[in-house]
Specification:
alpha/beta, 10-stranded mixed sheet, two-stranded antiparallel ribbon, 12 strands, 28% strand
Amino acid sequence: MRFYRTYIEGFDEALDGGIPEGHIVLLSGPPGTMKSSVAYNILWRNAVDEGASGVYVTLEQGKTSLEFQMTRMGLDPAKAGEGVRIQDLSRIRRGVEEMRGTARFGAPAEKPWLDVLKAHIEDIRQTTPFDLLVLDSLPVLEIIAGLRERRITLFHFFGWLKSLNATSFVVSETVPDLSSVNDEDFLADGVIHLTMERVGDIDVYRRIRCLKMRGVDHSANIFTLEVKDGRFRATQVI
């Protein structure tokens, strides 16, 4: 089985080499913890260094904004070429009320946005197959789709992701809490938590931890996440 590296120095060693091909991995954490950057880094590095093909689907941040952010971090999209394709579906979020429209007699219309997204990704896969997929983010998708039966819908959606035969990363804006577990935590093959921790009076550190990774003898330790010149590094918390 092929393993995909996260290209986070020190963290891949904690993952016993990387993430198994075909896994669905949840990247969860509060805002500012670099979830999107970590996800893009995985696609970009695997494209540039390994020749893998990736698709980054953004439902929130625009393509121009994302490319500017990644370039500033040292991950120039131009260097990856067609190895990383950004699909900007953020317009769905911005115009969700207008695009949903209104059914006859003034009743809210039910637009199958989840089906629209799935069809779009399936079309991409048919024309140009990909190895890696990022969906950013799950909470925005829930808002757009207007999920009513969350558990059942997520169960089928994760099953559909698995059927793509790609390694998928789902970004989720959640606050990791080991005392509570969400439905997606059970459905995903892997869960990587990113947090921010205050140390002392003024210092704040980003942390990363692999909570779950099926089929991998991984470390559950907490690491400090750092990035410099486009290179991510995880160091053991002392």
